[in-house]
Write a structure and sequence with these properties.
The complex is a heterodimer.
Chain A: H1 3-23, H2 36-48, H3 50-66, H4 76-89, H5 99-124, H6 131-163
Helix pairs in contact in A: 1-2, 1-3, 2-3, 2-4, 2-5, 2-6, 3-4, 4-5, 5-6
Chain B: H1 3-13, H2 25-45, H3 51-77, H4 79-82, H5 86-128, E1 133-142, E2 151-154, E3 167-169, E4 174-181, E5 186-190, E6 197-202, E7 207-212, E8 223-227, E9 239-242, E10 256-266, E11 271-278, E12 287-292, E13 303-304
Antiparallel strand pairs in B: 1-2, 1-12, 1-13, 2-5, 3-4, 3-12, 4-5, 6-7, 6-9, 7-8, 8-11, 9-10, 10-11
Amino acid sequence: MSLARNLTLALLVVVALVLQVSVFPHASIEGVVPNFVLLVVVAAGLVHGAQHAAVLGFCAGLLVDLAPPAEHVAGRWALALMIAGYVAGRVRQDVRPTWGAVALTVVACSFVSSSVFALSGLVLGDSAASVTEMLRVIGYGMAWDLLLAPVVVPAVIVLLRRLTPARVAW
Amino acid sequence: MDWNSLGRERRMRREPGDDPQRPKGTVVLALLLACASVMTLDHVGGDDSPLEGARRVVGEVLGPVETAAAGAIEPLAAVPDYFRTRNSLRDDVERLEKEKAALAAENRTAGLDRNRLAEYDALAAGAEESGRRVVPARVIAIGPAQSFSRTVTIDAGSSSGITPDLTVVNRDGLIGRVLRVTRTTATVLLAADEQSVVGARVTSSMELGFLRGTGDIGNDGLLELDLVDAGAVVEKGDVVTTWGSDGSGPYVPGVPVGEIVSVSSSPRETSLQAQVRPFADFTALDVVGVVVKAGTRSDRGVLNAEEKP
């Protein structure tokens, strides 16, 4: 874990969060915006593996839980993004991910994280949204994330690979 | 270096803890426990939760960043408006002409009523307080629908005299109430949120009720009005305002909220429900006002509601 890499990741997460709450609401589809923080976590998972991405997902999620417009029990996005990072990190790493693999990972992680967040709300009695509403939002969210994945994920992956000391090829 | 030692090095490199594909179970378990304890602390703590401090700190740091980002994106957000078709503009003109005609007709007969009402109003309100005091603010961040709660952040905080539970309005009507503040920002719960309940009064019949949000803030998003009196007579087009009290409740009285679009009664539950279309467009919020108490010290200009542009 190098300092430069961690600082870059922290900066990426903050930028993603600001894009998500301040910039993209202007382009939202019925209030649903792309989950940039999730895309950063997925990209980190594809590069650095499950353990790293789970830790990053936890920290990033906690920031989303605490940053201003959030009004729900803290720890819910932390749990959701931690699991998403873990899932993304389990994708095979010995080969470079193909476009298809990235798209599939993003869709899967978007579904998993939104579902975990929604279900944790049901369990804690924190959100009053109906199941159909949840499914609609999760569906729109997956479409947004898939739409922006080809731009965001490769960019973050390239950035992270540059910052990672050259690995021994195996 | 011989092949043997290279092989050993490679073996060492693939130790389970080092292999990114096989994370240590302990780390994942620790993170799961951390999530569980954060949620428990926050859920049980309620309003005094130990995480309120952390929320405040994050808000203080990210608030200015969000303000800057919202300011930077503002010119770009207007771009889609350039591409409106001529037909839609023509429709707009037609609609506005009709509205203008209707309003003008109404205006001719309204003079007497209005003057009378103004006198009564001035008589009643003048004794205690002259109009509302409003601190203007801009919306700088909007909670994503993925979080299933309808909240926004505004760029005025405790330094502008904002405290929790104040009413937030814009020129169209009620927006919501302040949940928590940092020095430079405040989080506002929109009236459209599913957990928002606003005491309301139907102006035509003075009937009381409770307005609940449905979570839908789109163009067809409505609010649900549960009337206290199941025998009340309310009609489509009736205007609904807040039924609050000065100083005690979170909502000040007499703020227009919306108009009734349909009424549905359920004899079995002996209740009367009405669907209310809010006057405010929750998807296009920009400048809002926070109604503050008389004598509030603020670092920005405080407007009187009547003089608001």
